[in-house]
UniProtKB/TrEMBL annotation:
This is Caspase-7. One of its GO terms (molecular function) is cysteine-type endopeptidase activity. It comes from Xyrichtys novacula. CDD domains: CASc. The keyword Protease applies. Belongs to the peptidase C14A family. Residues 151-244 form the Caspase family p10 domain. Keywords: Apoptosis, Hydrolase, Protease, Thiol protease, Zymogen. The lineage of its organism: Eukaryota, Metazoa, Chordata, Craniata, Vertebrata. One of its GO terms (biological process) is proteolysis. InterPro entries: Caspase-like_dom_sf, Caspase_cys_AS, Caspase_his_AS, Pept_C14, Pept_C14_caspase, Pept_C14_p10, Pept_C14_p20, Pept_C14A. PROSITE patterns: CASPASE_CYS, CASPASE_HIS, CASPASE_P10, CASPASE_P20.
Length: 244
């Protein structure tokens, strides 16, 4: 980190949805938001939580953030907690393309973040498939869960983005109503212990391992029982990133 500030972190926490969307209340998400706030604050971010945002409000919020001056910041982070589908994220009133929000921070749109990491953490479903897993030496199953269905040279406008998805394309993402989502639990656990020591890809690799090995769904409905999950990281970062 070579600037005065680590940077801004926006958490959009969507729990309640309009009836017309057909989406259930996301119980446990407030715990996720609270834990993420503490984790990213401890890393030096200026953290802001916005609850129950419509699609229009989400886009406006991130557009305003992209138009701010980030010259004295080392990076930018955005965390989306909501229902989702592949390539889509839900506002309280319906779904919108994730790219609509992330593209606001491209190099040609947000000049003060050119060459700086732009991190997006997305806790949401990316489809309706289940991961049944394959038997290994595994621990005890979990509780009942819910799902979420310097730049003098040119830099590509899509460079320096990192997307950390809670699950792979096409699959459900699991959330415990009491303890929060598997992905956020693991992310906060690893960040709390290693956030100021390890590089971001090392951190997220450990998150992948923790989600893959420490969590398994349990439900009285066998269709939703003994399911697994693996997060997915897509990186276009051009430099290593340490939060220290």
């Amino acid at each position: 980190m070579s600037h005065q500030r680590v940077g801004k972190c926006i958490i959009i926490n969507n729990k309640n949805f309009d009836e017309k969307t057909g989406m259930n209340v996301r119980n446990g998400t407030d715990r996720d938001a609270g834990e993420l706030f503490k984790c990213f604050k401890s890393l030096g971010f200026d953290v802001f939580i916005y609850n129950d945002q419509t699609c229009e409000k989400m886009e406006r919020l991130l557009r305003e953030a992209s138009e701010e001056d980030h010259s004295d910041s080392s990076c930018f982070a955005c965390i989306l907690l909501s229902h989702g589908e592949e390539g889509m994220i839900y506002g309280t009133d319906g779904a919108m393309p994730i790219k609509t929000m992330t593209s606001l921070f491209r190099g040609d749109m947000c000049k003060s973040l050119v060459g700086k990491p732009k991190l997006f953490f997305i806790q949401a479903c990316r489809g309706s498939e289940f991961d049944d897993g394959i038997q290994t030496d595994s621990g005890p199953p979990n509780d009942t869960l819910e799902t979420d269905a310097n730049p003098r040279h040119k830099i590509p406008v899509e460079a320096d983005f990192l997307f950390a998805y809670s699950t792979v394309p096409g699959y459900y993402s699991w959330r415990n109503p009491g303890r929060g989502s598997w992905f956020v639990q693991a992310l906060c656990n690893v960040l709390s212990e290693f956030g100021k020591q390890l590089e971001i890809m090392q951190i997220l690799t450990r998150v992948n391992y923790m989600v893959a090995t420490s969590f398994e769904s349990w439900s009285e409905d066998p269709r939703f029982s003994e399911k697994k999950q693996i997060p997915c990281v897509v990186s276009m970062l051009t430099k290593e990133l340490y939060f220290n």
